[in-house]
Amino acid sequence: MGIPAMDEIRKQRLQYLSEWVEHHCYRNREEIALSERCLCVGCGLWLVPTEIIKWYEDKHACCPDCGLTGVVVGSKSGIPLDEVRSNMKVD
Ligand SMILES: [Zn+2]
Questions:
Q1: How far is the CA of 58 from the centre of ligand 1 (A)?
Q2: Cα 29 to ligand 1 centroid, rounded to whole Å
Q3: What is the average pLDDT value for the chain, to the nearest integer?
Q4: Which label site among 40, 49, 67, 69 has the fewest CB atoms less than 10 Å from its CB?
């Protein structure tokens, strides 16, 4: 036992964040409407709610840039979006 290695802590944090995102990237229309800003975890694009004009089955946000569904999360979720994005492999 002992103190977990840093990469193990980081791995757990990333797992925690990705599960958090999973719980907010679908059926999120109301939450996104209440958010100040949104992040696409598919392509890393920052969005404001009014930029999201396509909704899959009227419930799930679609990213206007990469076109994927289930990748947009809003700040209202409480997810630390900057941290999520900083862990993405995007510019
Ligand atoms: Zn996107």
A1: 18
A2: 16
A3: 95
A4: 67
Q: How many CA atoms within 13 Å lie on the side-chain side of 61?
A: 28
CA–centroid distance, residue 89 to ligand 1 (Å):
13
> Structural domain boundaries of the chain?
8-86
Query: How far, in Å, is the centroid of ligand 1 from the Cα of 9?
Result: 28
Q: How far is CA 50 from CA 24, 26, 29, 56, 68, in A?
A: 18, 17, 11, 16, 17
Rounded to the nearest angstrom, the distance between the alpha carbon of 71 and the centre of ligand 1 is 7
pLDDT for residue 2: 72
